[in-house]
Amino acid sequence: MILFLQQLVSGISIGAVYSLLAVGYALVYSVYNFTNWAFDAFMVTGAFAAFYAITLFALPFPVAIVLAIVLTVGVSLAVEVGAYRPLRARRAPRLFMMISAMGASMALVNLMNIAFGGAFRKFPQVVAGALVVGGVSISKMDLFAAVFSFAVLGLLWLLLERTRIGLGIRASALDTLTAGLMGVDNNGVALVIFGISGVLSAVAGIFYGAKYAVYPYLGLVTIKAMIASIIGGIGSLPGAVVGSLFLGITETLVSGYISSIYRDLFSFSILVAVLLFFPNGLLGAKTVDKL
Amino acid sequence: MGYLVTILILGCVNVIAALGLAVLTGYTGLFSMGHAGFMAVGGYAAAILFAHLKLPFALALPGGALVAGLSSFVIGYPAFRGRLRGDYFAIATLGFAEAVRLLLNTTYKYVGGSYGFTGLPQLTSLPVALAATAAALVLAHLFVTSQHGKNCVALGEDETAAEMMGVNLLRTKLAALFVSAFYAGLAGGLYAFFMAYLSPSMFGIGKSSDLLAAVVFGGMQSLVGPALAAFILVALPEALRFLLNWRLVIYGLLFVVIMVFRPQGLLGYKEMNADWLRRMLGRGPGAAGQRDGGGR
Predict the structure, then answer these.
(1) Domain coordinates in residue numbering, chain B
(2) Is A126 at the interface with chain B, CB within 8 A?
(3) Range of the domain at A32
(4) How many domains is chain A built from?
(5) What phi and psi, each to the nearest 5 degrees, are found at residue A132?
(6) CA-to-CA distance for A180 and B21, rounded, in angstroms?
(7) What is the rounded distance in angstroms from the CA atom of residue B16 to the CA atom of residue B55?
(8) In this structure, are residues B76 and B88 in contact, taking their beta carbons and an 8 Å threshold?
């Protein structure tokens, strides 16, 4: 029982990191109908920025988080302006958007691989120790990651539901063209959305890097977030969170009770099963193209 | 074996795999990020058929390709069945390739796990590779100009309109994916019997990106374009060895630049054949029915 609770806590903390990424995907998808494949590169940017801020410049952890977020937002906005906006302006097919996003990701990730080298780096222990509650020991870093991630998601929810900017974003998600005609600044909305993406991926990158290691290809984990957002239903923000927690918890249970080797295989099987039996995800709207 | 022969054979392998991806991405408009996975399935299946089931090379090679083609239904059927968007499929291919690699990496019985599948003879000679490439090019041309190919182009342009014209979406997509995976599997088999060993690390995301690069650079709805690009992409890194580490960075930047400035790629929507040659000679450049790929 104690082992099970331990796994559950660990699963929630990794699920929280997936949530950040999956919500980022869902947000971009809900407005622009394409998967932002460059997300992995943003995540790696955040992880490296925080890592070097702490190890090289000896900055405190909160400052490192802020610095990483600022830098990642910058990269995210640069990709939006350079790689996505010209295509949107031309109303290019979705396939071209995907290829452009893929290109941005390849260029950035491999650039960082050359600049920093492919080694696995241990993230400095910024939050040490563990809480013991009724025999269950919870790593403080895990706890911090989960609380911080959900706080970020909560702020995002407030922004979307309670502010004028959020209203603009929701209007664009319903119908970008009409929202533009009604006076919503579409390029402004894009900057906000990709800015938010930058924040989410930076935080996810820092916590993932801190949990495992910092290396140029850590962005591969974004595939888990994509699977999570499919489980929840692509384009649905609550679905992204539910799917992420589900995937995070089941994955930890599989690696705890069966074998960590089969964890990723298991996630892929879940993806196939969800596509077969719940083609629109657990909470997703119907995603069939409208005329 | 000579240096030039090595490049020619590796070029042929890349061309065949890229032709497969061209049918899927260039013609049908489906984005695959995991074609290296189908190459791995084809290569390992051919190796198993040859080494464990003692089939002759001439049967093991197409047999491996067939297994790769059939394996594509594992993701094709769930992803296409519900009329889902291309993104689901792209994610599923990525997941498939990773799952295949993981499975091969951890299975030590029969396939050698992370040590790799060793002890294969080197049977892919230059004539074999050239003959396979020629056959692949001709068959791909026949496929894309057939009714099946036209269905693929139609649904790639507009799914709803294609369906209204009576195109069976699921069947057409599955057919395109099967052909595509079969080609990748064939390339994987040729690769296996040229390198004389297989290892899961040969089929990583980098390999999938290389194939995608060939199709993007070569152009949409073209076979000769991606084939040429695939060949150049093999020969070029050999010539520009000093760029080795920068290869993927440059590919990535070129993806963006091409999509922004010239989405049709090198030879997009054009085919180099006798007809094209005649038009070029007859009316001069620019008359060859150039189309803008952007306005959909």
Answers:
(1) 3-245
(2) no
(3) 2-277
(4) 1
(5) -115, 115
(6) 37
(7) 23
(8) no
Summarised one tens digit per residue, pLDDT across range A126-176 is: 888 888 887 788 888 888 999 999 999 999 999 999 999 999 988 888 888
Indicate the residue of A91, A113, A279 with minimum beta-carbon distance to B82: A279
Global pTM value? 0.85
Read off the CATH number of the domain in which A216 is found: 1.10.3470
The alpha helices in B158-204, defined as continuous H runs, are: 159-164, 169-195
Tell me which residue in A98, A103, A108 faces B31 most closely, judged by beta carbons.
Answer: A98
A105-124 tens-digit pLDDT: 989 999 999 999 888 999 88
Which carries the bigger pLDDT value, residue A288 or residue B201? B201
Closest residue by Cα to residue A99 from B21, B121, B9, B234? B21
The distance of A247 to chain B (nearest Cα, Å) reads 14
> Which CATH entry fits the domain spanning B3-245: 3.40.50.1400, 1.10.3470.10, 3.10.270.10, 1.20.1600.10?
1.10.3470.10
Disruptive mutation site among B104, B169, B256 for chain A (greatest number of A CBs within 10 Å)? B256
Say yes or no to pLDDT of B29 above 70: yes
Rounded CA separation B249/B7 (Å) = 23
Interface check A226 vs B, CB under 8 A: yes
User: What does the alpha-carbon distance between residue A91 and residue B213 come to, in Å, rounded to a whole number?
Assistant: 22
User: Is residue A159 within 8 angstroms of chain B, CB to CB?
Assistant: no
Q: How far is B54 from chain A (nearest CA, A)?
A: 30
Contact B260 A107 (CB under 8 A): no
Q: How far apart are CA B193 and CA B219, in angstroms?
A: 30
Nearest chain A residue to B93, by CA: A268
What is the rounded distance in angstroms from the CA atom of residue B214 to the CA atom of residue A212? 35
A33 φψ region: left (φ > 0), alpha (ψ -120 to 50), beta (else): left
Q: How far apart are CA A144 and CA A128, in angstroms?
A: 11
Q: Structure tokens of B215?
A: 């199709």
Three-state SS at B79: helix
Which residues from B are below 8 Å from A98, CB to CB?
31, 86-87, 90
